[in-house]
Every structure is written in C-alpha cells, then in structure tokens.
Here is the input.
Amino acid sequence: MPTRVCLALILPAALAALACQKPVEPVPVAKIEKDYNRALPPGAFALEKVDPEDYPDFGDAWYRAKRLGLRKSVAHSLAYLKTPTSKQFYPLGPITHERVVASLEKFLDLLDQSDTPEKLNDLIARNFDVYRSIGCDDDGTVLFTGYYSPIFEGSRQRTDRFKFPLYKLPKGIEKDRYGEVIGGPWKERKDIEGDVGLVGSELVWLEDRFEAYVLSVQGSGFIRLPNGELYEIGYAGNNGHDYTPIGHMLVSDGHIDKHKLSLATMIKYFKDHPEDMDKYLFANKRYIFFKDVGGGPFGCLGQPVTSEFSVATDKDIFPRGALAFVDTNAPNGEQRRTSFRSFVLDQDRGAAIRAPGRCDIYMGVGEEAGKKAGWTYSEGHLYYLLCKDAPLPSGDLADAAEAPPLPKPRKAREVDERLIIEKTSGQ
Here is the structure.
C-alpha cells in the first residue's frame, strides 16, 4: 500500500525540530488531567445522535468549505469507499457503507447550492442527521491535536554523513489482509538493525539515528537528498511486533519531565546521551519497512490526506472515510489558538489514537506545518454527518453480512500504523 502519514500521538511540542532542528516550546498542558484515552466500554457505540436544536452552527465553516481542498478530500474518501475492501468495516452500529457514500455525495450537492453560510446551515439541518462522539467523559469532550509530514535530510547512498539505514521489506515476510505478519512476529528491532543479512536492502540513509528511529515507527516521510530533490518513502510492511512508546520510559526513568516531554526534548536527550539509544530504542520492538512512493502523503485508507481537511481517529470505533465536523481551537500563523470549525474527512489513524476522546488534525508537510501541528492542543467536539434518506444496503453488503465475520482483534493495526511522537498527556 502507499505511504501513509498517520502520525499517531502528535506531541503538542517542537515538531518543527524535525525540519529545522530548532526546539519550539510545547503548548502548556500541565493543568489538563482528563483521561482522553479512556477506552470505549465493551458493546458501546462511540457516537450519540444529536437533537436538531443542538446542532453546531455549520455556517461558521462555510468559507472553509468553499476551498478546493475540502472537495479534494471528499473525492479521496469516495475513491476509498469504491474499493471492495472498504465494505468489510461496515455496518458500524447504525451506520452503513451506503449511507456514508450517499452522505458524501449529498454534501457536495449542498455545497453547490449554498451561496451563503445561512443556507448551508439550513440545508444541512434539513438533510442530515448529526452524531457526536461521546468523548472521554460521555459529555462529548474530545482532545484535538495536530500531526504533519516531516522532512528529513538523507541520501540514497551511504556516506560518512548519512549512515543510518531504513530498509525495504525483506523477502519472506508474508502479510494477511490486515497487513499483519503471517505466522507471528518476525525479528525484533535490535535484530533488524544489526542483521548483516539485510545488507543490500537499504532504501535510504539518514544522518541521525533517532530520526531514523522516528521514521521506522512513523512509516512514511519525505527525505531531502543532497541534490535538493524531495524523495518520498512509504509504508511497505512491519515486523509484526506491537508498538511500545519510549517517551513513557524516559519520563518514568526521570530523564524528561512529564510536562516537557516532546519530540524536541527527546532529540536533545539522545544527542546528549547517545549511549542510551540501545536501551530505549530497542525497547520498542516494532519496525516498519519502506518502499518508493509518490503522490502522497497518504492516510490509512490508501488515499492522500489533505491539510486541515483530513483527521485521524480510532478506526475501530469511527466510520472510515466519513464526513465529520470539527469544533475546537487551532493555531493561526502566529501560534495563537483561535476558533477552528471545519468540515473534515475521517481518513487516517494513529498507533495511539484509540479512544472516542482523541482526534488528530493533519496540518501538512514541512516546517510550517510542523509548527502548527505542535501548537494544536485543545478540547472540542467531533461530529459526523449522515444523510437522512439513506439507501438500503446493497446485495453485496447483504451477502457479506451472512458470511463469517472477519477476524479483527483489537491489536491488529492494519497497515497504517506510524507513530511519530508520544503525547505529553501520557498516551
């Protein structure tokens, strides 16, 4: 599958350090103590239907909705929903595959008809049912953070400067339909990094070992080559091991204060203490392999993600590719947070975005996007829009419903998992 950008658990911190190596102070979060990662209770549904009189003011997002980026994002969701494999994740509670498709198509029609914010608000109220995430507290509270696609310095050939490799998928690793390794986990990270048998499988070399580590769990990225070319690499597979966040370990061991944990502080720690890399990096046994890609960055649906119009959520509990509405705060160009109300498409997931109280907003590629992502850390509400006149399930879907259910253990991460950072809130 193509490269993905699903940067799970984006720190409200110096994400721009990846691009410019200059630390940026994280958003102060010490006073926020809610359990945003509270798991959805067994058998519960993550969404609750909203009474029409409690609908948010969708007209506030009219100007943003008129941007070309939103239509592109809708088109990407529709492209995904046309794939046969997309049906296996539906129905999700009362939400059918057909209803999600119809909702996207209806929304595009309403955009064409809406020449004012008021008209858009009215048309949505008359044509859509609205569902809200129950959040972390059954009162709809969702923590919104940001993520982005960093740019690293690297080379296609090993040099004295660039000597930390990222590998292609080794021969012999077979994957099931969810992207998991058939037959159980393969070699651990420490074995992969020291395996002479992988010589010749290097795809690209990086200058910094910790940056190579970040990419090997993120699973996608952009490499700036010595000639200035921007080279895109993407997810090819993983070794089958679960992800272990090393940020928690650094905090527990007293190396970084809990409220100062960020990618920047982690980079600084390992620059000052390179002797500790084996201890901490090898504690995360999971490793992601790469391939050449283009046209990204991509989300976990195999479709491109769009700056400020794509979000990452828990794909086990929220509808894939669906139309959503974000009501929170986000940074403007001066790193001050202001009201952010926008229609978005649910097109990505993250290694630790696994609860109804969490959502990541994709901010784009490069240093400026990293700054915005690093300063995105606010509570808010997450809504999903589903058209009222939904079509009945197709024959294909009915047939699929009669077939034995697909095995989907909670830990099966499908081929989308790319962490970049562990969050300050202890995720």
